[in-house]
């Protein structure tokens, strides 16, 4: 029996907006072939040996499948899953119930693991390495520390910032995998499959077009597909055609490169306020009144990957491609 317990940090089953489109098995996942091939070997070996899978760290930008892997892996292994998030693990006592409740070989998924405070991180070390935890029973002078064995489990940590993890924490993960962006063909495959899950008819070119404008990210492809479907249902006969796709995406301000209004605001701020850079991320975030995390996680990976921004030791700079795209005149010499 596969037990799926979603506690605190995660959405409860039924409330997860991604749940209807999230692949249930690794076989249903598109792309990430090398990661999947390596994980299959590790999963199979652990199963044959009758051991827990080694602790796994998944890193990469948001929406690329970290949570999907974390939910598919325990299904493959037929073990239970508990989910939480680094943002709500403020003290070791927040972590204790997960560790003591973990069934043999089950998976504990900690999303945004870079956000756990040092004291929680240190508490994790012995749990991960020796499957032991210290718990304090009683109060004041009666307080006693008890050393408790816990069942061997697998920690799956997900992070968008592997650089923020300390060396000792990173070293305790036997398997580390980086998830990269998806090709347009892979996103098309995801869109066609998900349109059918949503009972929506879609023209092949429309699926290609949505894929091309989804910034290599399945979550964005799903969101854009849902929007285009809504548009098709209210403004047309429900079929997602090319015309519907163009009109729906234009209404959201998504241009032919997949750039959305926030990306353009970032580039325009960089050019208009900071003369094309170099400019630091803090200054940009303050000026745009947006969180630095949003810019670093959701805006910059796409702009950097597509050559609209470069990072230099002195800060971010716009490129000639950016001026061209925004139809602005570059300043005299010195544009990156
Ligand atoms: P992350 O945890 O990295 O932010 P998720 O795992 O929540 O990303 O992925 C977001 C959504 O994208 C999922 O609900 C799923 O529908 C889709 N998705 C992600 N990876 C894949 C994949 N490899 N194949 C198909 N769909 C995927």
Count of helical stretches:
13
Number of domains: 3
First-to-last CA distance: 57 Å
Average pLDDT rating: 91
Which CATH architecture of the largest domain? 3-Layer(aba) Sandwich
- Bound small-molecule species: adenosine-5'-diphosphate
Radius of gyration: 23 Å
SSE layout and pairing:
Elements (H helix, E strand, L loop, with lengths): L3 E3 L26 H17 L6 E4 L6 H12 L3 E5 L6 H10 L5 E5 L6 H13 L1 E6 L6 E6 L4 E6 L7 H5 L3 E4 L5 H14 L6 H9 L5 H18 L6 H10 L9 H12 L8 H8 L3 H14 L3 E4 L2 E4 L1 H7 L10
Parallel strand pairs: 1-3, 2-7, 2-8, 3-4, 4-7
Antiparallel strand pairs: 5-6, 9-10
The chain binds adenosine-5'-diphosphate.
Which short descriptors sum up this protein?
336 residues; alpha/beta; Rossmann fold; Helicase, Ruva Protein, domain 3; Arc Repressor Mutant, subunit A; 3 domains; six-stranded parallel sheet; two-stranded antiparallel sheet; 13 helices; 10 strands; disordered N terminus; binds adenosine-5'-diphosphate
Summarize this entry quickly.
By secondary structure, this protein is α/β, with parallel strands linked by helices. The chain has helices at residues 33-49, 66-77, 92-101, 118-130, 167-171, 184-197, 204-212, 218-235, 242-251, 261-272, 281-288, 292-305, 320-326, and strands spanning 4-6, 56-59, 81-85, 107-111, 132-137, 144-149, 154-159, 175-178, 309-312, 315-318. Strand 5 and strand 6 form a beta hairpin.
């Amino acid at each position: 029996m596969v037990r799926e317990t979603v506690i605190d940090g995660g959405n409860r089953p039924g409330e997860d907006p991604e749940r209807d489109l999230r692949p249930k098995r690794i076989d249903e996942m598109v792309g990430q072939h090398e990661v999947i091939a390596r994980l299959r070997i590790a999963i199979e070996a652990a199963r044959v040996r009758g051991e827990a899978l080694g602790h796994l760290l998944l890193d990469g930008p948001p929406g690329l499948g970290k949570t999907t892997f974390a939910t598919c892996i325990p299904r493959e292994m037929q073990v239970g899953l508990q989910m939480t998030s680094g943002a709500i693990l403020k003290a070791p006592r927040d972590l204790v119930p997960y560790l003591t409740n973990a069934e043999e070989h089950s998976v504990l998924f900690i999303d945004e693991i870079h956000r756990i405070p040092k004291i929680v991180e240190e508490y994790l070390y012995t749990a991960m390495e020796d499957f032991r935890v210290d718990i304090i029973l009683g109060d004041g002078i009666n307080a006693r520390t008890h050393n408790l064995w816990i069942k061997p489990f697998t920690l799956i940590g997900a992070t968008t910032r592997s650089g923020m993890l300390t060396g000792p924490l990173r070293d305790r993960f036997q398997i580390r995998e980086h998830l990269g962006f998806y090709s347009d063909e892979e996103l098309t495959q995801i869109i066609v499959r998900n349109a059918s899950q949503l009972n929506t008819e879609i023209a092949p070119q429309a699926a290609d077009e949505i894929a091309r404008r989804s910034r290599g990210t399945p979550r964005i492809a799903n969101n854009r597909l849902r929007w285009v479907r809504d548009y098709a249902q209210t403004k047309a006969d429900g079929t997602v055609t090319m015309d519907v796709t163009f009109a729906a995406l234009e209404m959201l301000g998504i241009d032919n490169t997949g750039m959305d209004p926030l990306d353009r605001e970032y580039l325009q701020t960089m050019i208009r306020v900071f003369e094309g850079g170099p400019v630091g991320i803090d200054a940009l975030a303050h000026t745009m009144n947006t969180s630095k995390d949003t810019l670093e996680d959701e805006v910059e990976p796409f702009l950097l990957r597509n050559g609209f921004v470069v990072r230099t030791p002195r800060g971010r700079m716009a490129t000639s491609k950016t001026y061209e795209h925004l139809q602005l005149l570059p300043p005299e010499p010195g544009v990156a």
